[in-house]
Amino acid sequence: MTMPAWNAKELTVGQLAARSGVAVSALHFYERQGLLSSRRTSGNQRRYRRDSLRRVAFIRVSQRVGIPLAAIGEALRGLPDERTPTRADWETLSTTWRTELDQRITQLVRLRDDLSDCIGCGCLSLDTCVLSNPHDRLAAEGPGARRLECDTVPADCSPDSAPLQDCVAPPAQPDGPRTHRE
Ligand code: FES
């Protein structure tokens, strides 16, 4: 008779928490999200397969690099027979996620730079604040802060291609919102 998988070594939730370093409440949460599964004993206690340890490690490492739980769940569900990710699975997934991570880092760096322009300002102007109006009429010029203080924008006007002092300053607004060069 073939031994069922559940007859292999199993872990209680406490053991899984202790071995993985993840709180019991987090393990229950993962289970509610469908990332982890267990069986119930006749006494209604959870028992986890031993390979759940690797599954939990996969979830934690993925979360640590900023992968949302929904994407982690999708990746796990995409594995055949609900198997725990193998080394090859991790290689494939981490390569895909690396690309997404690079894109998010680029986006965050751009946001940080835009935020630097806002620090000490507070105008939240639809005309001058790139964070307040990220999809402004200059979007066709390209991403990022296409318009800083420029009222007219040369085709090549960007923080990288033209010094700010070369741009035409917007009309003065004595009582209006401040520009970020005040
Ligand atoms: S708050 Fe963003 S430029 Fe003023």
Automatic annotation (TrEMBL):
Show the segment(s) annotated as Disordered.
159-182
Presence of keyword Transcription: yes
Q: Name all HTH merR-type domain ranges.
A: 10-78
UniProt keyword Hydrolase, yes or no = no
Q: Which domain of life is it from?
A: Bacteria
What Pfam families does the database record attribute to this sequence?
A: MerR (PF00376), MerR-DNA-bind (PF09278)
Entry keyword set: 2Fe-2S, DNA-binding, Iron, Iron-sulfur, Metal-binding, Transcription, Transcription regulation
State any GO BP term from the record: response to oxidative stress
PANTHER family registered for this protein in UniProt? REDOX-CYCLING DRUG-SENSING TRANSCRIPTIONAL ACTIVATOR SOXR, REDOX-SENSITIVE TRANSCRIPTIONAL ACTIVATOR SOXR
Write the protein's name: Redox-sensitive transcriptional activator SoxR
